[in-house]
Amino acid sequence: MTKIQKLLVANRGEIALRIMRTAREMGIRTVAIFSEADRQSLHVRYADEAVCVGPAPSSESYLRADVIIDVCRQTGADAIHPGYGFLSENAGFARAVRNAGLIFVGPSPESIEVMGSKLAAKAAVASYNIPMVPGTPEAITDRDDAKKTAARIGYPILIKASAGGGGKGMRIVEQEADFDEGMNRAVSEATSAFGDGSVFIEKYVTSPRHVEIQVLGDQHGNIIHLFERECSVQRRHQKVVEEAPSSVLTPEIRAEMGRCAVEVARACGYYGAGTVEFIVDDQLNFYFLEMNTRLQVEHPVTEQITGIDLVKQMIFIAEGKPLAIKQEDLEINGHAIEIRVYAEDPANNFLPDVGTLETYVRPQGNGIRVDDGFEQGMAIPIYYDPMIAKLVTTGATRAEAIEKMIRAIDEYRITGVQTTLPFCRFVMQHDAFRSGQFDTHFVNRYFTPDKLLPATHAEETQLAGVLAAWLFQTSKPKSGPGAVVVDQQRSKWRERRLG
Ligand code: MV4
To answer: Which atom of ligand 1 is nearest to the CA of 202?
Structure first.
């Protein structure tokens, strides 16, 4: 067992802050890395030390494995937490960290490698009796064989890229006549996106829910699950709303899915925090799809209902401590919902709208958690994901969490950029969401821009924002010159995008 003394967080924004907060509580010193675009960021100011690792583009800064490992040498950091995105699921990085004599706060490079390939993942769990969607267990090499398989399992089928992610290289094929075209497209998309054209076939589950199970494993073979997160409300494979628990699972199915998730983790000798992804059909049959070998964006909802700090557990595990939590000690307490607040315009096809947060006032009060990395007056860089914040509400019941979310959304004051807050409000007020009767098609099925708040109310909201900004300015005269400009300004991103 090695106690971590100084942790380098190889990430930025809200997740870097989130990780450093826990490190600080544990008496671990923190090192931030930052790009030239993030010099003024909160994660840089929060850390005990901060080192610039390069220019704004990720490929020249946050993705520079060699530079980051070098920063550990310079600063004496003995461990690296990768957060999510960037290098978090890069087996080569995890291995390089290990080879440099440092602790990688995450799973083994071998687990990352196996789970990074959907086909290798399926092969790894093959002997564990895990339910999987009918399909081909291996990469397709012979089209005629594949067509026979498709005919046997029945159309519609889904062609998936083994190296896939974010829906890339995925094609629905409705009938045999469309098979060849679907295959060509999937292979060429997979080849250009991942440099790996391996594809396989699955029966297409037409209206699935996305339910994932959080697991924690230690380096001594103990593995537990921390129940599920329901992530069905998504748009173009980007999650918008996540919650825990799922409103469709019975205690029996939950226990069964939890058991399967633990077996999946066991199949690849998993340690660290991981997420096992399932789809659930309308009959509540569930099927294992893949495993994510990182701390996920939506991890807070699990923390809220279990009372467990997942980052703290990740650090203990990385230090080699055995898990102190037993499966039977865990229970679900209440209900938590997370919305992702993006600098995107829901009235304009969710076009990224990065600019300056002219007004930025967070909601507050009982049951509200805001994980963010911004302050009023800060610019949202064009180089990275445009997520401003994660807003999480926790209530005794799902209905309470929803009401709290609506109140929190209405209290949130953001001007200077368009955000997905009005869209999230639409979701919270929709009968399908409120009743729990929804699937992954929710957004496509129900959302059109005219469903956003009527203009009059939007104006009121904006006026309130101006007032809040004005109040803020009068109390803090140094915070900015002249009158607050709301919204007229075209963001840098738009200028680039729209010319
Ligand atoms: C599926 C599916 C239906 N049937 N597999 C999309 C991303 C990847 N993680 C898995 N995905 C899907 N796999 C079969 N056999 C539907 C999806 C899917 C989906 C899954 C979860 C959340 C949102 C989704 C949106 C569209 C499609």
So the answer is: 15
Phi, psi torsion values for 186, nearest 5 degrees: -60, -45
Residue 167 alpha carbon, nearest atom of ligand 1: 7
Six token digits for residue 461:
């909201």
Whole-angstrom Cα Rg for the chain = 23
CATH 3.40.50.850 is the classification of domain 209-452: no
Q: Is 202 in the pocket of ligand 1 (CB under 6 A)?
A: yes
User: Is the CB–ligand 1 distance for residue 439 below 6 Å?
Assistant: no
- Sketch the domain layout of the chain as residue ranges: 6-105, 134-203, 209-452
> What pTM value is reported for the model?
0.91
Residue linked to tokens 């279990």: 306
Choosing from 136, 206, 209, 289 the residue with most ligand 1 atoms within 8 A of its CB, the one to mutate for a pocket test is 289
Residue of 417, 419, 418 whose CA lies nearest to 390 = 419
The 10s digit of each residue's pLDDT in 59-108 is 999 999 999 999 999 999 999 999 999 999 999 999 999 999 999 999 99
Give the 3-state secondary structure percentages of the chain, helix then strand then coil, rounded to 5.
40, 25, 35
Distance in angstroms (rounded) separating the CA atoms of residues 141 and 120? 16
How many whole angstroms separate alpha carbon 465 and alpha carbon 463? 5
Q: What are phi and psi of 343, to 5 degrees?
A: -80, 70
Which CATH fold topology does 134-203 show? Dna Ligase; domain 1 (3.30.1490)
- Tell which residue, 278, 244, 205, has the closest CA to residue 401: 244
Separation of alpha carbons 238 and 131, rounded Å: 25
Q: How far apart are CA 373 and CA 43, in angstroms?
A: 7
The domain made up of 6-105 is a member of CATH 3.40.50.20: yes
Least confident of 129-143, 228-242, 277-291, 316-330: 129-143
Length of the chain: 499
Pocket test for ligand 1, best of 170, 233, 442 (most atoms within 8 A of CB): 170
Cβ neighbours, 10 Å, residue 175: 10
- Active-site residue flag, 294: yes
